[in-house]
Structures are given as C-alpha cells and as structure tokens.
Design goal:
The structure holds three protein chains of three kinds. Chain A is mostly helical. Chain A contains ten helices and no strands. In chain A, helix 3 packs parallel to helix 6, helix 8 (167-203) packs antiparallel against helix 10 and helix 9 (215-222) packs antiparallel against helix 10. Chain B is built from 15 helices and 21 strands. Helices cover 30% and strands 21% of the residues of chain B. In chain B, the strands form five sheets. Chain B has a seven-stranded mixed beta sheet with strand order 8-9-10-1-11-19-12, sandwiched between helices. Chain B has a six-stranded mixed beta sheet with strand order 14-18-13-17-15-16. Helices cover 77% and strands 0% of the residues of chain C. The model of chain C has no long low-confidence stretch (mean pLDDT 79). The chains are: A mainly alpha, B alpha+beta, C mainly alpha. Chains in contact: A-B, A-C, B-C. Chains B and C meet through helix 6 and helix 12 of B and helix 2, helix 3, helix 5 and helix 7 of C.
Chain lengths: 264, 511, 314
Amino acid sequence: MAPFGAAVLLAAVIAALAAPLLSPHDPLKQDLGNALARPGRTHVLGTDNVGRDVLSRVIWGTRVSLVAGLVSVALATAAGSLLGLLAGYWGGRVDGMVMRLMDAVLSFPPLVLALALGAVLGAGLSGVLIALGVVYTPTFARLMRGQVLSIKARDYIDAARALGASGLRVACRHIVPNAAAPIIVQASLSVAFTILAEASLSFLGLGIQPPQPSWGSMINAGRGYMQQAPWIVFGPGAALFVTVVGLNVVGDAVRDALDPRLRA
Amino acid sequence: MAPTVTRRTFLQIAAAAGLAPNVAFAADPPKKGGTLRVGFYVEAVTMDPHLSGSKVDRQVYYNIYEPLLTLDTKLNIKPGLAESWTQPDPKTLVFKLRRGVKFHDGTAFDAAAAKFNFDRMKTEPKSIRKGEVASIDSVDVVDANTIRLNLKRPDAALPAALTDRAGMMVSPKVIQERGSSLERDAKGAGTGPFEFVEWVKDSHLVIKRNDSYWNKQGGPYLDRVRYRPIPDDVVKLQSLQGGEIDVMDYVLPRDVAPMKADKRLVVVDVPSLADFGYQLNHAKPPFNVKALRQAVAYAIDLEQIVKGVWLSVGYPANGPISPASWAYDRGIPPIKRDLAKAKAKLLEGGAPAGFEFTMTTNNLPISVQEAEVIQAQLAEAGIKMKIQLVDASTLIASGNAKNFQMISFQWSGRPDPDGNIYQFFKTTPGTSFNWSGISNEKLDALLDRSREVSSPAERKKIFSDITKILQDEIPMLFIVHPIEPKAFSPKVQGYDPIPDGMMRFKDVWLR
Amino acid sequence: MSRLVLHRLAATVPVLLLVTAGVFALLHLTPGDPIDTMMSESADATAKAHLRKELGLDQPIYVQYVRWMGRVLRGDLGRSIRNGEPVIENVSRRIRPSLQLALLAMTISLLVAVPLGIVSAVRRNTAADRVGTTFALFGICMPNFLLALLLIFVFGVTLRWLPISGYVDPMEEGFDGLRSLILPAVTLGLALGAVITRTLRSSLLDALAEDYVRTARAKGLSEWVVVRSHVLKNALIPVVTVLGLQLGTLIGGAVITEYVFALPGVGRLVVDAVFARDYPLVQGVILLIAIAFIVSNLLVDLLYGWIDPRIRVR
C-alpha cells in the first residue's frame, strides 16, 4: 500500500505544482453552449454547469485542496501538540488554563466557529486556513496531553529523571517521540477532515472565492446535477477520495517508520 | 371560479409546458377528499398577517385568510371579501363587503371587523403593514357592510396592496382574546377555504377544509393540506420523485428540463413578477461615474446569461417590470451587449484600460454561476470583477449600509408595478431599498406622479418613461425576470397559477 | 473522586464565560442584523426600529451581554427573535433527533468497529486485517455528503426502500422513526466507525508491543486471553477520547448530514440561527452545547481514571 500512497501523493503534488502544464484546457474558460457535456475525447471528465473542463479544474483544484488540508493541519498539529505537551507535562495550573481554553474552543460547533472566524477574517483561503487550524487544535492538544500523561507514568521516564535529565530534555527526547505516533495518525486523518471542512466552508461561501476551483466547491456546485451530470461530482469526488486515501497510507507508513517496534 | 375553467387553464399550461397529460381524466369531475402534501423551501415565520415580513408566510395565508381584493391569472384586480368598490374621488375608496361571511371562529365578518383590521395595521407597534397602509388617513364604518377609506393622498397602488397581506382580514375576536398567540396558532382567525389546524415547528403545518366556506362555487375539495419545510432543493426534488410530497413550491432552472422529462411529475411554468439584478453604488468609486456604470451594462450579455445560467427559465429584463405585468412595455428592449460602446464608455469614464471592482453576491449555486459568467463577460471588455460571496444576512446588511460597489438584488415582485419601483429608485435619505443611492429629480417627479394618476394607461406610460431613465442612469443592472416553475405529482388537479407565485389550493383536488 | 468532579465543575465557569463572551463578540463582529434579515421584504424603518428597541438590540454590546448574562443566571435563556419562542423550547425540540441520530450512529459504528479493530490488530497482516484496514481507510476518506448523496440515490430514489428526508420520532412511531434515521445514521456512523477501527487497531498494536504483553505471552497465555485481560483496557484510552470528542461533534455538528436529510437537529438549528443572526438563539444554543461538551469531557476524564488507574488524579 505504501508505494501506492506515495505515488498518489507525488501525483497530487506534481498536479498542484505543474497545473498550468498538465491541464488540457483553461480551467476558467467558459462555454455556456457546451455546459454539462458528457465525458468524451475533448473533455475527458466532461464539462460543468458553465461549460468549463472538469479535468482541468480538478487538476487546478489540487492546489487549493492540498494547501487547505496540509497548512491547516500543520497549524493545528503544531499549536495543539505544543499546548498538549505544556498541559500534560507541567500539569497543575498550566494544564488547567490550557485545557479550559481548549474546552472553550471545542464547545463551539466547528462549523459555527469557522463561519464566524471566516466572517471576521474576511472571505478567502487564509481565513479558512486559520479557522480550520483553530478548530482542530484542541483535538491534537487533548490527544497529546493524554499521551503525555500515560507516558509520564512509565518507568523509563522516572529513570531518565533519576539520571538527571532536565524537564525540557525529557519532554523532547522521551515524551515527544513516544507520543508522536497517535499524533501522526490523527494528523493524517485530519487532513481528510480539513479538506472536507474546506468543502463545507465553500458551501457556506467562506472558502475560495469563485471562479478559482477547489474540489469541495466543485462537488457542492455539482451536487444539484447528480442525476443529469454526475461527472461534475465524480471528477473532484474521485480526486478527493484518492488523495485522501494516499495521504492516509503515507501517514501510516510514516507511523511505522517512527515506531520501529511495529515494523513487520 | 368554476372548476371547468380552472382545469382547462391547467391543461393549457401543461400543454404549453410540453406535456401531454392523459386527456381522459380531464372530464373527471373534481373529487372531495385527500391530503395534499406540500414541500416548501423554508418554514413559515408567523401566522399573523399584520406582523409578517417574509414571503413564505403568504403561501399559507392565501389558503386560510382572504384579502378584500384578489388577483386573477392576468393580475387584474377582482372582488375578494369586498364584492365591489368605488372611488368617488382620488382620496376616497368605498368598499361594499360581502354578506354572510364568517370567520372560522364563527364570528361575522363585517364593516366593524374590517375597520378593526385597518386600525390594527396602522397602530400596532409591531405592525409591518404600516408602510403599505400609510396613505390611509382613517377608516369609516358607513353601514354594517360598507367601509370608507379616507386617504391622505391619492394612492394608485393601494388596491393592489389590498390583494395581499394588507387586505387580509383577521377575526377581531381572536386578536382581542389571544392576540400574541396568533403568531403561532391561527385557529379561527381567517375566513378562507381552509382552516388552521396545527403547526409543529420544524415538522409540519396542517390546514383543513372549511366546510362552511361562503363561496359555494368550486372547492375547497381537499380534506387537508400539510406543509413541510424542506430547505434543501435536491432533497425536495427527490422527495417529490419518491412520492413523499405532492407539490413543490419552486423548481430550480437546472432541474426544469429533467423534471419535464420525468413522467412521474408535472411541471407548471408560472411567470413571476420578480426582478433580479445588481444595484450599483452611486456614492462610491467606480460607479459614481455614470459612464462606467454604462460600460458595465454594455459589456454584459443578458441573452447569454438567461440562456446559459437560467436555461431560459426566465426573460431578459429591460427594467423592474416583469412581462407578466400589465405595465410591461414590449417597446423597450433590454440593454444589448455592445463591446465597442462599452470601450467608448470606458474612455469617457476615464478608464480606457478598464477598471477593477467587487461584486457582492449571495452564495446560492445559481448566483455563483451567474457571477462567474458576468465575470467572464466583463473580462472581455477589460473590466476586472472580483466576486465576494456572502450569506443573506450579510448581503442585506451590506446593502443597507451602502457598503458595496455592486451588489446582488433579488426582489420577489409585487402585483402593482409601484411595488417594484418606487422604494428602490426614489430619493430616500437613510435606510431603504434604494441601495444604489440614486437621486434624480426627473425620476422623483415621475415616481410621485405614478402614484397620483389612477388611469392604468397613463400609469403605464409613466412607468415606461421611468424604465428609460433607469436604462440610462443605471442604478441597477436588470438581469432577469425569472419564471418560477412549480412541480406536482400527476394526481394533483385544478391548480390555477397566478403570477404572484402564491399557491391557492381552493380548487385543487386529488385524482 | 467527588472532589475531582466538584473541582472540574468549578473549572467550567471560566470556560462558559469564555465561550459566551466569545460567541457574543464573534456574532456582533459578523455583519448582518436579525431584524433586517427577518423582514427582508420590508423597508419599513420605523417598525424595524421599534422591534430593535423592544428586543434591546439598540443597546451597546456590553450592555446586551450583561443583561443576557443576568437573565441566564436567573435561568432564562430568552426568546428567539425569529419565531418568538423561548430558546429552551427550540432546543428541546431539536435535541431529540440529534441525540437519537448520534446514538444510532455510535451504535452502528461500534458494532462494526470494535470487532474489526480487534481482529485487525490481533490477526495482523492477514486477510482479515486487510478488510479492517481497508474499511477504515475508505470510511475515513469518503466525503460525508458524497456518501449521503449516494445512499439517497440508491436506497431512496432508485430502490425506494427508505425515506430520504423528514424526521419521524422513533419514540412515538418506533419503526417508521427508526427507518427515517437509518440513512443519516449510516452516513455518520461509517466515518465514525472508520475512525474507531483505526484508533483501536493502532492502540492495540501499541499495547501488544509492550513488555508486559511479551511476559504474558511467555507465560503461555493464548493471544485472545492476552488481549482481553491485559491489552484491551489500555488500548481503549484513545478510543474513549475519540468517542468523547465525537459525541459532542455528533450532537452539535452533524450539520451537513442534518441538512442533506432534512433532519431538524441542533446542528441545523445553530447554523440557521447564525444565518438569521438570531442572537439569543445562537447564544443560548451554544451555551447549552458548551455545557454538554464539558460534561461529556468530564466523563471522558473519569473514564480514563477507571481504565488506567495510573492516570487517576491523586
């Protein structure tokens, strides 16, 4: 599976970087007379409701989806892990403060938080990235804290402490690597969620602004044409599905690599 | 209204819509009974017509309440609860009320009840009807079945307003005895062919046949009508296909062709009074420059938008008045695309190389699609348009605050042209629907005159003059007068479409 | 233990203050106005001004917040601007479908995920494991609304086995109600089941690699006994975390599923209220969701202590 995942991810990255070279048509070029055209020779994945080439839009959409998924998860992972580590390792008042803040963020329904943040930060991709980053931070913080609490109680931590290792050293050397596996699993899952969340936000009008294509907004736009022109949904839907599968597989491979005990 | 006429009209429309219904059943007499299940895009807000500010409420009202006057399919004003009316002078209207009409609570509808309703509309603090009855100075009870409206000024638009919520009569007893609960429970409150039964929020609203309805011609036939809110267009369509509802209130243009091909459904094209377009902000660059407004108007291809985005489920607009209205002037063509003229106007407006601006629009699929097409059309003239998608609340707030350059404006339309024109283009300081901020003396004078003269021919001429000024000044880019198709299960018979889009079920029956 | 609970409950006060103040600030920073939205077809400025005054919307935001808090402390969450009903009535009507949907989705997901996760981990690298991991992978990668559309298309429109929209209360009309919840519950349950399968498998594998497991194996205990008596409890910690986090999400955040299947749940209520700028309703519902969240998090933490006594707060 891992080579497959790597291939998918590589293909996605290439598609994102080389979109202008790879796409057979201009992704913004409309042809209202040829709207909802079936997949065929000129338009391999058909055309959408204003006659744009679906394949070209799928290729260009890779950029937005990858950026939305990866950047927001990176933000959430970094912020969440740091906060979770702080809370779990130092405990006490730090723990209380950090986790209350996370509770507050978590208590907001995610879409509402993203909606409000997006409205305040202004429509567009950067607002979405920050909003999604904030929404997913508590997940990582709680997971990290849970891991840290569990690891802290183990013998080898006590041993390291007894050998005079500093708190920072213990945290970096012993706790973070041991807590990383579930965080990576969670991150690889979260990319799927953030890409989907980006789609939901596009649906609410806070994502990428038209006419730039993103898979999420393409699926949403094509949703009303499921019976007449399902290819509008299938193109980006398949791209989304395959990419997320690839990301997951790669995430697992990384996890196995990080945790030698599990190597087969 | 005789059922035969109704059925014939229905068949004509069905035939016009390209359907060949089973003619065999056309001769069937209407049959009593059954529950009609109706899917609406959103839930009603209040059952009190005097406090109602949303369109969907009216859909229910037209079956349980009755206005003093009504509309026919050509939008002519006809008797309703008033069996006749006269206008002895421009500032007086006298209504003869129908005798023997009872509210569902058993109390009689008479002149005192009518006066009570007008007084409430004018004085109730929460009344939203104040604007529509503003021209009424006082209401006199002449005798038990006659009222006289004394007007502050001539108001040619008033009779049309009385075909809608401002003319709907509510039982004074219900208001006096349980005023505030009327918002949720309209039991006994109306005189219409159906009575309110129950409203379970988020689930359904049920009305039942009024067996002692005063009008013995035709229906009501249905036992009950059950309204269900289904906010999602795709789900609503699938619910109709799946037989979970019998009627849906609106079919999106993209679904019209496939639904017409579906034998399980009947689609009826109902022309609407709506006008959809974009207001341009006259107070802000770039559209404080008239030539640049005109440049945009010449760069836009209405034909292509109506054909490609609206899939011809609508008409290119020449102005605010819909082709369904008596005041529509076929002699005024919509502004035609002319890129050479657009370039000339750009030069005249001091932006020969084009300019940049932002369109604020609703994040509905069709609005997005239309915005994308306009964006591509303007780009061909060198005009760079950015699209900002917002939700409905933000859209209204941006319009009211005049915080936009170009903003989507969708008006559902009113039977009298006044309702599509006056409040949008008359000079008004402060908050109003005149989002563009247009203030034009000649236009203002014509607008006031249109309310003073009462002859329809004269009014039509004034509206044509207004339309020409609007095409020159461009406070608004008029795009389309949409058709609002409705879809039915084939067993639904006798629906008579009126261009105001309201679904009156009096003569509807189930096969 | 009861001291822990009291301590945690006391700690919720700042969280709730943070949440409510945050909601208030965010809502009022968002452009739009409830009265204009409600009366979108009326330009009657005096009627609108009157309504604003009556509802206190003409006051400065901090005054509105203090007044609102004052009423909340007296147990009054206020009334919805749009439909005039008490917030609590709106919520209690909407919470039923949401809770039922969440429970059904969780049941479906656990029924699928627990056996799959265990088998995958124990019979690692076998065909059974591949079934489990593939299910988890596909379930996670399947876009929620794409699955919903597919289910509707297949079971609702084509086969007509199940209703595709509308909600019937299973507490009142058992079978029909259950039928109306199946498609949305499967939609939600598949993704959740995938996450649980994956989490359970991964944490079981972690636990199986621990020294004490080797010891247990060396003692000659069978693999199943090892799993049941030594490993499962530890491996459940991440699963409990995921479940605890998801319960809140399911109740307050199944927005897309509730929309696509026209289910009148809490998620839709919040989003509709945000779109209508129905301030009291948004504030009230989010406060209640926040409370539900905090309680479920507290339960998760208590469960930690039960599962792994080493974490128990001393």
